[in-house]
Amino acid sequence: MAVDPLIELRDVNKYYGELHVLRDISLTVGKGEVVVVIGPSGSGKSTLCRTVNRLETIQSGSILLDGRPLPEEGRALARLRAEVGMVFQSFNLFAHKTVLQNVSLAQTKVRRRKRDDADRRSLELLERVGLAAHAAKYPAQLSGGQQQRVAIARALAMEPKALLFDEPTSALDPEMINEVLEVMRQLARDGMTMVVVTHEMGFARSAANRVVFMADGRVVEDRAPEEFFTAPRSERAKDFLSKILKH
């Protein structure tokens, strides 16, 4: 059990109409922990990730951040989304703004930073993700891997307590995946609390504190990566691993 919980889901249920996508999910993520969520398509991984910053609402159960229930709406919700950054499959960058402007925008709007301070912070973060030299370019001038690293810098600019990654590399060409994972590994080493939905098993092995395996909207296993990959307990996990580790 995590010593100092940052994110807690308690008996969370989520439906889309008749479809029961999250079934009695209970999960705790401690401060500084990296939890990787894996499982077959349609198992509820992305939905789980999106409930943590209320991009998806839940029908029952509770979700706590730092011991407090997630806010419903309004200003408190905007603040929550600043505290729990999200990096998506698609990079969601503004095409008509430069890389620097993309990273600075929310800092000035949500965090109310002065433009110069925001730009200074943005440049530090672009340096951190290896893209300071590209600050004046527009997203279309960058590769997919570079755009995703800009999106990570943008999420970091809000100084979040935690970062959620929803399949951050699945839209990328294979040769760009590693540059994004490397930035994520570095964040993990720096102690960022992260929940990562991914198909990248190498990342799960090397960077995760825990692997959460989901199937049919439930958490089937929640264990240290080494144990999970070498001796999965459930038939579902064995079956899943046998299919993906053959590659």
UniProtKB/TrEMBL annotation:
EC number(s) from the headed UniProt entry: 7.4.2.1
Catalytic activity reported: a polar amino acid(out) + ATP + H2O = a polar amino acid(in) + ADP + phosphate + H(+)
PROSITE patterns: ABC_TRANSPORTER_1, ABC_TRANSPORTER_2
Cross-referenced InterPro entries: AAA+_ATPase, ABC_ATPase_HisP-typ, ABC_transporter-like_ATP-bd, ABC_transporter-like_CS, MetN_ABC_transporter-like, P-loop_NTPase
Keyword Transmembrane helix: no
Predominant place of localization: membrane
Top EC class, one word: translocase
Native organism: Streptomyces griseoviridis
Protein name, per record: ABC-type polar-amino-acid transporter
Membrane topology per record: Peripheral membrane protein
Family matches, as Pfam families: ABC_tran
